[in-house]
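Thread amino acids onto this structure.
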């Protein structure tokens, strides 16, 4: 049973309603079920790097995520917000970016793009939006998980719309590794930055602390009464496991492991909730063949979408196309 697996994974962890932010300049008690003890030899998910305190490193090892407050400047975030609006309103070219539309807004016309597009992806070559994935202060933390040679693999700006009462603005619980045909998982990390104050009301992230110690689960579309957004695959059987809500301020950034179970709630406000993220991988990682695995369903879906855009590429080639080197040397990815 899925719940039994999570109980084993979580072990002795405590599960608060709200995860504590671990300040990046302190080294005291980590709270939120984390442990500040442990020698270097016990670390699996982080690398030797003085940029993380011992407490922060132990917290990530135990929980699979770490929130760094006020990491990104507000004026940069405001610039990215304006760029997003320019793109979705077709005032500038979107190039090879993918614009995703919320299922609840399907068929609407004659309204601003912000009210239709719930996500843009693959802006890694955009002069303005790609600044996020290249920020030195972000990469300094990324290097603690990937090592010095870093590829930006997947970029997103999420524009969670006000929920119309259908709860379709939710994102089902999932593991990001489901979407990635490259390994090892422990050298992949996501940097997810809040572009405004984010809390339970407007659909903050929720995580299952410690679940990064598990395995990649089967993902499918959830059977939601009012439908689900394209490619919003999720795991089943984990609805009742304890979760932590990540309330964040503008500029806060959470780093998390690709096997960490997470999702986001419905946006119950009247405003669009924005966040920007990038998944990184060590450049000496390798691609795998997902045929015959639990990832085959998403691979086929991504390849079919590429064909509709006149790009006859396989799953691995698509990922090569959407990534770029952001620090160090390009090796095997």
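Threaded sequence (333 positions):
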């Amino acid at each position: 049973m899925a719940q039994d697996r999570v109980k084993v994974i979580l072990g002795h962890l405590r599960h608060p309603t709200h995860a504590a932010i671990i300040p990046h300049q302190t080294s005291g008690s980590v709270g939120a079920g984390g442990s500040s003890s442990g020698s270097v030899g016990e670390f699996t998910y982080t690398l030797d790097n003085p940029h993380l305190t011992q407490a922060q490193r132990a917290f990530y090892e135990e929980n699979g995520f770490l929130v760094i407050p006020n990491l990104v400047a507000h004026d940069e975030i405001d610039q990215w917000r304006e760029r997003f609006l320019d793109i979705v309103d077709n005032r500038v070219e979107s190039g090879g970016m993918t614009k995703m539309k919320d299922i609840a807004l399907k068929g609407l016309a004659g309204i601003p793009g912000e009210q239709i597009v719930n996500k843009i992806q693959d802006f890694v070559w955009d002069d303005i939006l790609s600044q996020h994935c290249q920020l030195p202060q972000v990469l300094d933390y990324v290097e603690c998980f990937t090592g010095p040679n870093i590829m930006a693999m997947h970029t997103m700006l999420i524009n969670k719309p006000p929920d119309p009462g259908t709860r379709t603005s939710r994102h089902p619980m999932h593991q990001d590794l489901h979407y990635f045909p490259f390994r090892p998982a422990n050298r992949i990390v996501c940097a997810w930055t809040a572009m405004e104050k984010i809390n339970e009301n407007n659909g903050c992230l929720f995580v299952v602390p410690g679940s990064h110690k598990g395995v990649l689960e089967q993902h499918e579309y959830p059977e939601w009464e009012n439908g689900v957004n394209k490619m919003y695959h999720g795991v089943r059987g984990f609805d009742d496991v304890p979760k932590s809500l990540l309330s964040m301020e503008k500029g806060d950034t959470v780093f998390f492991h690709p096997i960490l179970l997470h999702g986001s709630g419905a946006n119950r406000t009247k405003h669009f909730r924005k966040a920007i993220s990038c998944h990184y991988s060590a450049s000496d990682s390798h691609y795998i063949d997902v045929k015959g695995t639990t990832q085959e369903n998403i691979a086929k879906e991504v390849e079919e979408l590429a064909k509709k855009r006149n790009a006859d590429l396989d799953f691995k080639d698509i990922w090569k196309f959407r990534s770029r080197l952001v620090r160090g040397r390009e090796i095997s990815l």
